[in-house]
Write a structure and sequence with these properties.
The structure holds 3 protein chains of 3 kinds. By secondary structure, chain A is an alpha+beta fold. Chain A folds into 2 domains: 1-38; 48-109 and 159-169 and 178-242, Alpha-Beta Plaits, CATH 3.30.70.20. Chain A is built from 7 helices and 10 strands. In chain A, strands 8-1-10-9 form a 4-stranded mixed β-sheet. In chain A, strands 2-3 form a two-stranded antiparallel sheet. In chain A, helix 2 (63-72) packs across helix 6. The longest helix of chain A is centred in the N-terminal third of the chain and has 33 residues, at 3-35. Chain A starts with a helix and ends with a strand. Chain B is mostly helical. Helices cover 49% and strands 0% of the residues of chain B. Chain B has 7 helices and no strands. The termini of chain B are far apart. By secondary structure, chain C is mostly helical. Chain C has one domain (18-334, 347-384): Formate dehydrogenase/DMSO reductase fold (Up-down Bundle). Chain C has helices spanning 3-34, 49-72, 77-81, 83-103, 111-116, 123-146, 154-177, 190-216, 223-253, 258-266, 274-296, 302-329, 356-379; one strand at 338-342. Mean pLDDT of chain C is 93; it is low at 389-397. The chains are: A alpha+beta, B mainly alpha, C mainly alpha. Chains in contact: A-B, A-C, B-C. At the A-C interface, strand 2, helix 3, helix 4 and strand 6 of A face helix 5, helix 6 and strand 1 of C. Strand 2 (86-93) of chain A pairs antiparallel with strand 1 of chain C.
Chain lengths: 244, 183, 397
Amino acid sequence: MSKPHNAARRGFLGTAAAAVGGVMLAPGIQLIEVAQAATPGASAKVRWGMLIDTTRCASGCTDCVTACNTENGLAPPARSTDPQWIRKVEIKEIKTGRAASLPVMCQHCAEPPCVDVCPTGASFKRADGIVLVDRHSCIGCRYCMMACPYKARSFVHEPLADQRPDVPRGKGCVESCTLCVHRIDQGDKTTACAEACAKAGHGAIVFGDLNDPQSEISRRVRAVASVALRADLRLDPGVRYQGL
Amino acid sequence: MTPPRSAFGASPPGGVSPHRASACALASGWRTPCDMQVARRRQRTGRAGSAASAWLRWQLLGRSLVLALTGCLLPAVADDGRALWPTIEKPAKGAQCVEDTATMRRQHMDLLKHQRDDTVRGGIRGAKHSLKDCVGCHAGAKTGSVAAAPGDFCVSCHTYAAVTIDCFECHTGKPAAVAQRKP
Amino acid sequence: MNARTETRNFWLLVAIGGGVTLAGLGAAWLMEEHGHAITGMDNQVVWGLPHVFAIFMIVAASGVLNVASIGSVFGDAVYKRRAPLSGLLTLALLAGGLMVLMLDLGRPERIIVAATHYNLTSVFAWNVLLYSGMFAIVAIYLWTMFERRFNHWSQAAGVAALVWRFVLTTGTGLIFGFLVARQAYQSAVLAPLFIVLSFGWGLAVFMLVQSALFAWNGQSVPGPVHRRMARLLGVFVAAALYLVAVYHLTNIYFARQHAFEAFVLLGRGDGGSGFATLFWLGFVALGSLLPLALLFHPRSSARSVLAASLLVVLGAFAFLFVFIIGGQAFPLEIFPGYQVSSSFGDGAIAQYRPSLPELLLGLGGVGAAFLLTTIGVRVLDFLPRDDKASAGAKGGD
């Protein structure tokens, strides 16, 4: 127990500890390197939303619906059992007779009733505000379909084949508009419906980050009057409508 | 203790009999206990030798039959690609898998299960264990899928191991068309 | 009836119950193979006939335990003798109802996910826990009644079962009560309504099963006992009618609910008057008023009491059909004050026609409950004994 012995022992232990630490950390360092190759993932700093200008929506135009169906691999709906993620709704005010046309899809509420009622937590709200169905946990109970005020959700009543690789969907699960999450995650700045509407020259749909004060959608909702559907329910939807 | 009274019967089937011997006899189907003893004695003497050799003969015949059948079936590969052993089609690109074979065999289900939550709930796409990338490499040349025909990559092993997968009820087994990732 | 005939009859009943259950399982398999497209359900009416059966059985399961509660908790001797049968019926009906619910899922093979992943803001998730707990509590309760050493625990177990089933039935009512979007639901009164409905439906089922069992055994329910239970059933039916009236009256008071009430009560709308007919004729007239008359009439006989019980059960199905399916058939009001139309059925009353697989699945659940009751009564001593010789059994009088 003389001093030189202690020092040598401590030195050895110190080196050994450093070596072990390095060996343990090294795989982690390597993993971080690999993770950077993947997309960054959803961020809570962002809140994705949509503004729909119903004054630019022509009755009978279904460009957004067609684009959504193509993008997500949905067949054109023929029966009441066929899923519809977005549909054009024609409305006419009973008292005044004023008519309008607008697309309705999942409103991506900040307080989604569908998320509250899902027994397994398959219906969930992502960090960036997109409300999705995790089909790995969905048991197909359809309670979220009962709870949704906008009839946004569809149930897959039949076996499916040839799904789009980015959009897995299958029989027995519930699904709804995903705000083209597979595109958004990979850095795309818009959804299929908004893109198609813009390309066709109508420009009725604007998609963007509601949390970014400089985004086009934020500037537009600051400038024009827009409402949420069923605003009395206080669900704070991410989709707003102008001209209603 | 009185037997339970139920709606549809006064006593359980079989009943309780005061004479154990006759009850036993009734149960076993013999008329008297004597008969049972005679049968046991017969088994032990005289007939033992022929019984043993008959048993041996049946054993030999049965076992050789099983061996022959197994031998015949071993190299069998049906025309539809179904085989007794999994037919692992090497990916056309010849690239290396993201993990070594042994790790993949043991852990691919856990890796995929972890990744799916990262992708669906976290929005992380294109990570190391992305299912889409697995499909992209492993889709068979004939069917263009990992799960369409019995000889395809995923289905082949899973059929051999008798483990059901329901990934491909929702996920397509066919790879995505080559596309540039948008910036 | 000698033992041989009884045994043969038992196996005959098992065969019938088993056959019906198998038909239900077959229908469930078909739905699993081909998807729900083969049923009458679609994206508007998402819960169909199987849910009508399932919710009836679950609510009745909770209510049938009332008989045992009156016995164990309030010490009524007549009801105490009936407690084990009541417990058995609870388990059987709950099992049948849950079987239908689970097989109607889009992915029934994922029950294990439902059992291991809980979103505790969901009433459904609570119900998974409540139903499982109900099985356990009623099983323990039955055990305290059968095991002589634990008879003194049966009151505590009875109280636990009573509290648990109040929470459970409240949960069942709140499945609908928590749905803010639908005009047919979104009401707190649904919780007490379901509790009172459970009292009536459960007692009606109990009386039907009890009379059938006694008849098979060549006995009859003692007159005074039968009359007491008949009057109690009448009280429950009246209370249920009262709460349904309150629910509708409140709705009628709100202008925004007028369209829905006109649809359900008067049959206005393109859907036709099917739901209104079913409500007034099926539930109110045949399911409530006629049974009340039969039960409280001074010259009511055992037969009229049984007829009343059967009518209450049929009225229950009518009520649930209007409540569950009518509530969904009426379109969601996304644009109040507007006339709406779309490719997805917005603004239109949905047309729902029950299909054969749905009916078979629902009946399969009833068959399973029947099977469990038949086997249970055969194997263990569930039949209530009202003769004097029963003193000392089942925890004493």
